[in-house]
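TICKET #2291
ISSUE: user wants both folds in one file
ATTACHMENT 1:
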Amino acid sequence: MASSGLQLFAFGMALSGVSGVLTATLLPSWKVRVDEGSSIITAVVQLQGLWMDCTWYSTGMFSCTLKYSILLLPTHVHAARATMVLACILSALGICASTVGMTCTRLGGDIKTKGHASVAGGVCFLSAGISGLIPTVWYTKEIIADFLDLTVPASNKHEPGGAVYVGFISAVLLVISGMIFCTSCVQKSPQTWLYPPRQQNNISTTPLENNSAYNLKDYV
């Protein structure tokens, strides 16, 4: 089994990844657009998220509108919603399983059971990380494609917001912690192949001794 310190380090990264994925799912800053207007007083910051759109005015006012219509949303928004919710669920299951699988806890019973729980937690973290990487990369690709498209008007061009970066970094942390937990149950036993057991020579020497005695009698 891996050391308790390494598992605690992976568990800390997993906790950071879980909180980051949940925060990125709820934040409305997946797409950002700043409209300065004619002066700084009329500046407007438009934020678009998975569940709501918000507008911040330079006067200090802040308003948000929920996205009630499902049919009007593009495909990548639906995919981002589903995969981010799935990442939150899988990461929560990974926290429960990895808590049982860590060697520093008294849960899970024997070492074999803890190893299985550790692998299960690692698989959940890996799946959650992949589920978090898919929407962040896809969303960023769509934003950049619209930004570079000359046919799209300037009023509809946005830039990636902070939620995309938070989701991407959190997904990477989940993947790394999942790899650590998946490999933490490997038991290293080099003696089984570096030093194979020696075979004892059980050949009896009694017949040889009898033959030699018989040969000596022939010369008497």
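ATTACHMENT 2:
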Amino acid sequence: MESPKGCKVGFAEDIFHWEAIMIGPQDSPYADGVFLLNIDFSVGYPFKPPMVNFKTKVYHPNIGQDGRICLEASWRPPISIFQLLLVIYARFSTPEPDDPLDIEIAHIYKTQRILFEEKARSWTKKYATASQKSAINWSHFL
């Protein structure tokens, strides 16, 4: 299956439960981080968006503390998984602080950008580096 640059996707259990890996973009505070996501499709797919959760902790205004990312506002049935991953990946470089899941992080992003970037880099180093890489079942992505 074709994946966007910086992303890999594969079945986790069956066709309704997938996993994806994203490598943080170089132009962001998430550079070189390895982020693992769960993608769960309901029987309502493609008319309902898949549920996407980051398993890796991420300091980001559009990602909830539980790892949830909200896709309802931008979802359209013709969107492919490739396009979905592109949208999520783009948010690493261009957060949308006016549509946050974490209001506190969004406020810091808007008012103290340097502090936001320091915290995002710190979380990436703490949660999305060597220990994360060793926890990934790479066989899903080969």
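RESOLUTION: both attachments delivered.
EXTRA DETAIL ON ATTACHMENT 2: The longest strand covers residues 7-14.
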